[in-house]
Amino acid sequence: MEEIEASDFYTELLRPRGLGWCVGTSIRAPSGDTLVFSIERAHAKGPVPRAVAESLDALRPHLARASILSARLGLDRAKSTIATLEAIGLPAAALAPTGRVVSANAPFLANESRVRIGAGNMVQFTSEPAQALLMEAISNGARSQTGFGRSVPVRATPTEPAFVEFVAAEIRTALAGMPDQTRVLFTAHSLPERILETDDPYPSQLQATAQCVSSSLDLDNWGVAWQSAGRTPEPWLRPQSFEERHGLVANVTFTSGLVSFDGRWLAYYGQSDTTIGVTICETASTTGG
What we know:
Layout: H1 2-5, H2 8-14, E1 19-28, E2 34-42, H3 50-56, H4 60-87, E3 93-95, E4 101-104, H5 106-109, E5 115-117, E6 123-125, H6 128-143, H7 161-175, E7 184-188, H8 202-217, E8 222-226, H9 242-245, E9 253-261, E10 264-271, E11 275-281
Parallel strand pairs: 7-8
Antiparallel strand pairs: 1-2, 3-4, 5-6, 9-10, 10-11
Helix pairs in contact: 7-8
């Protein structure tokens, strides 16, 4: 009784509403969750008589069946969602509130190099920071009453076979309508040149991805290029032509327009806010959404 009198649940929630006595039961669901049923009784009426509790025992099998049906329906919905994601090539798994995997599709199971199902059917990332973020999200979700969402970044894998094949498939489709020996440029956003001094893996990762994709497509005519450079006091990785580096506002290039003419693409771009350049090429973009 002393514990009850010291509990905010009773003193601040139940008692002010005239409640404070109850009878209940717990049922272990197939999902691994424990369902607790509590039937409240007016505090003024005193404790629930044992005879009343025994009469309610007859309802327990029905409550158990209802919980099983509810869990089964929820599991069926989860499995249907997982299968739909698999049909469009996305790995997915459904987790119980405790983090236990209740369903996973084949693409998810094929990613053991980065994430797997470990002891106790728990998701385990090979990256410790990613695993810590996942466990934090599960813990926060267990306390949430309105649902939650969380993105968990994983370590970059520039030569991941699935990623390489995805990029290769886009390029393969684009090249189907291009002339033979069309040059393929792999472009990426630029970064300050200081990353080279700290051995940042970004440039080498881009090169590794381009090399793997080119090898899978048997490309000979390809290269890597930087898309843009930021206007900051420090130099960025960027093209080094004189016109792009000198003018009213030096070291700035920006696309002004793209025109399709006579079977070719004409890309007009500003150079240091002074001159206009044009690049003429026969190519196709495989920029993803």
